């Protein structure tokens, strides 16, 4: 992790968890790059709050013009929800039936169901958009605030029934490495060594963020259907193949669903 990324996550932790973080000095160009990364991950307001919390440190020398722009962004930013596939459902019919039954069960509490929805949302983001920094951070905030009321035995059972274990492990690794969670706070996490943990996170971070809404189809003058963004389509194909082993049953139907959604944008 380079110095820009280190500072990004330090400021994010300071902004959402109010932790005491030591910020490293950055040049004006690197501060602009950090801002771009915060915008890309949709965490600009949270990182800006971290800047406010760390503003007395000598190393926090953000260019005034950028600080003003960042402040305005933090006020206006409302997030961008992906309406392609809602996070409370899965595309595989059988798995989605199990998920809905879990969400409708009357003998589980709200916190346990909410924890499951956080994990499903993270999985959906990994499959359709990229690195789920904001969603993982939100899950971390939820666990710190309401984790004591989560029935982790039931949650682990649900994770296994939905075949979510490998993907849930990725979310847990991000919470440990990026947000400094302990294993005690993540009872659903499988024991893993630091080397394997780092390898899995590097694999996740090799993928650049994208946006599923860019992957649409249109019909040209030659009648043949073509993609409006070929690179986005190739991104989906590569990502589906890359994470197929993590969630094969859902990854396949997710790709087909995204493909069908794109076809719906053909111009008549």
What would your notes on this structure say?
By secondary structure, the chain is an all-alpha fold. Helices cover 60% and strands 2% of the residues. The protein is built from twelve helices and two strands. The protein has a two-stranded antiparallel ribbon with strand order 1-2. Strand 1 and strand 2 (225-227) form a beta hairpin. The radius of gyration is 20 Å and the shape is globular. The chain starts with a helix and ends in a 5-residue tail after the last helix.
Q: How does the SSE layout of this entry go?
A:
Layout: H1 3-17, H2 28-40, H3 44-53, H4 64-76, H5 93-104, H6 110-128, H7 133-146, H8 152-161, H9 165-179, H10 194-205, E1 217-219, E2 225-227, H11 230-242, H12 248-263
Antiparallel strand pairs: 1-2
Helix pairs in contact: 1-2, 1-3, 3-4, 6-7, 6-8, 7-9, 9-10
Keywords:
268 residues, two-stranded antiparallel sheet, globular, single chain, 2% strand, mainly alpha
Order of SSEs: HHHHHHHHHHEEHH
Euclidean distance between termini CA atoms = 47 Å
Give the class from helix and strand content and strand pairing: mainly alpha
**How many strand elements?**
2
Strand order of the largest sheet: 1-2
Query: How much of the residues is beta strand, in percent?
Result: under 5%
Regions with little confidence, pLDDT below 50 for 5+ residues: 79-85, 208-227
Helix content: 55-70%
- Major sheet characteristics: 2 strands, antiparallel
Molecular shape: globular
State the helix count. Answer: 12
Mean pLDDT: 81
Provide the gyration radius in Å: 20 Å
């Amino acid at each position: 992790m380079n110095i820009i990324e280190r500072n990004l996550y330090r400021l994010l932790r300071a902004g959402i968890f109010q932790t005491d973080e030591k910020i490293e000095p950055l040049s004006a160009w690197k501060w602009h790059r950090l801002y771009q990364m915060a915008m890309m991950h949709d965490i600009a307001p949270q990182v800006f709050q971290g800047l406010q919390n760390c503003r007395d440190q000598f190393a926090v020398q953000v260019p005034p013009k950028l600080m003003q722009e960042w402040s305005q962004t933090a006020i206006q930013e409302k997030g961008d929800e992906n309406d392609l596939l809602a996070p409370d459902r899965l595309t595989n019919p059988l798995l989605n039936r199990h998920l809905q039954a879990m969400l409708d069960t009357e003998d589980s509490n709200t916190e346990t169901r909410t924890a499951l929805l956080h994990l499903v949302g993270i999985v959906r983001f990994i499959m359709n958009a990229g690195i789920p920094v904001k969603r993982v951070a939100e899950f971390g905030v939820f666990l710190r605030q309401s984790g004591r009321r989560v029935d982790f035995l039931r949650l682990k059972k649900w994770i296994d029934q939905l075949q979510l274990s490998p993907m849930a492990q990725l979310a847990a690794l991000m919470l440990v490495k990026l947000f400094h969670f302990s294993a005690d706070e993540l009872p659903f996490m499988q024991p893993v060594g630091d080397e394997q943990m780092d390898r899995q996170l590097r694999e996740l971070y090799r993928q650049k963020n994208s946006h599923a809404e860019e992957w649409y189809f249109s019909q040209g003058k030659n009648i043949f259907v073509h993609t409006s963004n070929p690179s986005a389509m190739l991104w989906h194909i590569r990502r589906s193949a890359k994470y197929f082993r993590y969630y094969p049953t859902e990854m396949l139907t997710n790709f087909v669903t995204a493909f069908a959604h794109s076809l719906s944008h053909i111009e008549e």
